[in-house]
């Protein structure tokens, strides 16, 4: 029997339905135009890269210089890290902040040296072991009198312990969905892509952040300076790093093993993006003594397969096969 709604029966116009369809069509058009623009830009970048690679003496574009403020904290300086706000006086005394750190060198008298960002990182590392040297930038924002430690993603390439901050896991599946969609776009050109996943303690939201980076078929390297990243992720907790291996297996390469070494950090790789269900590997780096431990993706991300259909289980019979 054909179903009709009340608007059809009385010859009325469902303006709400028409408006909804109009907005959906507009959103679809905007999405298609955005994708077409991205593809055209990507085509131009690929052609430029191919041209440069074949030109003797051609070099990669110069990286943007950092515009970070000079490191000059005082007693009022605060630090924002992993969702916490703390005073710099938790790591330096008022005397050290005013006069510098007392440093003793071999066969020399102790002398005061101006505080540096590295001095702060070293002291914070005792409480936060993830702030590893060469993996961390300490960004000082003069106007806010604020320090934001930024854990840098190193170059990546394809060649029962729960993660740190386990209260924020599993991560909503929509975040993984977004990254796979991003990876699929660049996989068209056999290119890898990197992203970081953060949790905002202010809004209780998860964010997939894609920093500026240089990408190739076998490698991706973040080029965005720490100052820029710090302004974007202030007040966020970095939960994990994720990158793609396009149509290749998501097996960590030697470069990945050297790069992914922040204690407690979770790492994931998405590969075989040409398949309907891409493959994912995930792991966590504990420390230099233990190294990496493997994690199941279901421990990291919510499963999309949690909607059971409505059916009568009484009609399901289990039989034994001889």
Brief sketch in words of this structure:
The protein has helices at 6-9, 15-53, 94-99, 117-125, 173-187, 226-233, 254-259, 297-300, and strands spanning 78-81, 84-87, 101-103, 111-113, 136-141, 146-151, 156-157, 194-200, 206-209, 213-215, 219-222, 236-244, 266-271, 279-287, 291-295. By secondary structure, the protein is an alpha+beta fold. The two termini are 47 Å apart.
Q: Count the strands?
A: 15
Helical stretch tally = 8
Largest sheet: 6 strands, mixed
Average pLDDT rating = 85
Percent in helix: 25-40%
Beta-strand content: 15-25%
Contiguous uncertain segments of 5+ residues: 55-62
Name the assembly state: single chain
Structural class: alpha+beta
Mass-distribution shape: globular
Features:
alpha+beta; six-stranded mixed sheet; four-stranded mixed sheet; globular
Account of the 3D structure:
The chain has 322 residues and is of the alpha+beta class. It has 8 helices and 15 strands. Strands 9-8-12-13-14-15 form a 6-stranded mixed β-sheet. Strand 13 and strand 14 (279-287) form a beta hairpin. The longest helix has 39 residues, at 15-53. The protein is globular and about 95 Å long.
